[in-house]
Every structure is written in structure tokens, then in C-alpha cells.
Amino acid sequence: MTSTQRADTDTDLDVGDLTRAIENFNRYYIRLPAVQKLSFTTLSVLDTLASSGPKRLTELARTEQISQPGLTQLVTRLERDGLVERRPDPADGRAALIRLTESGRRIGQARHEDRGRHLIPLIAQLTPAERQAIAAALPALTRLAQLGTEARR
Origin, by domain of life (predicted)? Predict the structure, then answer.
């Protein structure tokens, strides 16, 4: 699909424009300064576990798009730091589930709150119409993310 193609003939949504807007925002958002200096991969794993619950290493490696040996090393470090723990999988005693600890959850919450603090002064600079447009788009963006997550399963 080229940048001038539409997602649907009944809408004026330009997928190229949407992609550029998301990428530009993400470029800024993921690089916001943080109280704790953790890698993007570490933060992504913690966020995935916080939002999706415990996962097997193989499932987490697929979700995070990193090799299983690389993820195993990362999980070992996170476990050593008290951010995740391995628990037996009740469905298969031979396998383990990676679970977020309370310390890991607090890091994710602190990161979320810190990012919000950085966004507040920027949002204050938007016009009321721009703020309303973002608020109106939130349900659709949330649904778009859900559809993307479901499609990866």
C-alpha cells in the first residue's frame, strides 16, 4: 500500500500519513528521559508481561522479536535483579512461565508516570481542538493496537 492509498474507500484515512504520525510520535516518546536507565528491550519485556500476564520464554521471544538465547540471558538478568520470576507452568510442569514481580511492575508504572509528566506541558501547548482530536482518536487507536496484537497470535 503506497502512502496515498486509503485503508478503505469509505474513509479519508491515509495509511501513509497515519504511519508517519505514529513513527514520529514513537521516535520522541520511546526516547523520553527516564529515572531508571533500562534498555528498550528490557522495558518492552516488562511492559509485555505487565499487559499480557505471565508468558513462556518461547512466546515472549516471539512477541519481543528477539532470539530465544538472547531472551533467556535477559530474563536471567531480570530475575537476578528481582524484576521477574520463573514459575512452573500449570499446564505443563516441564515448562516455566515468566512472571513480573512487584518490583518489575513498579518500574513500568514509574516509567508510565514519568512519560506522562513529560507530555503534560506539551499537551498544554496544543489548541483545545487538537486536544479534542487526540481524545476522540484514543478509542480507535486502542482498537487498532488490539487488532494488531490479535493478528500476531
Answer: Bacteria
Q: Residue 87's beta-bridge partner residues?
A: 97
Question: Which pLDDT tens digit goes with each residue over 72-114?
Answer: 999 999 999 999 999 998 988 888 999 999 999 999 898 889 8
- In percent, the amount of the chain with pLDDT more than 70 equals 91
Partners of 6 in the β-ladder: 14
Contact between residue 100 and residue 50 where contact means Cβ atoms under 8 Å apart: yes
- Helix or strand (DSSP H, E) at 151: helix 128-152
From the list 112, 108, 117, the residue with the least C-alpha distance to 52 is: 108
Q: Which fold has domain 32-152?
A: Arc Repressor Mutant, subunit A (1.10.10)
Q: Region 31-60: what's the mean pLDDT?
A: 87
| Cα 15 to the center of its chain, rounded Å | 21
What is the edge-to-edge ordering of all strands in the sheet holding 84-89? Answer: 55-56, 92-100, 84-89
Provide the residue ranges of all domains of the chain, joining segments of one domain with +. Answer: 1-29, 32-152
Q: Max Cα separation, the chain?
A: 56
The answer for residues whose C-beta is within 8 angstroms of residue 103's C-beta and 6 or more apart is 81, 82, 83
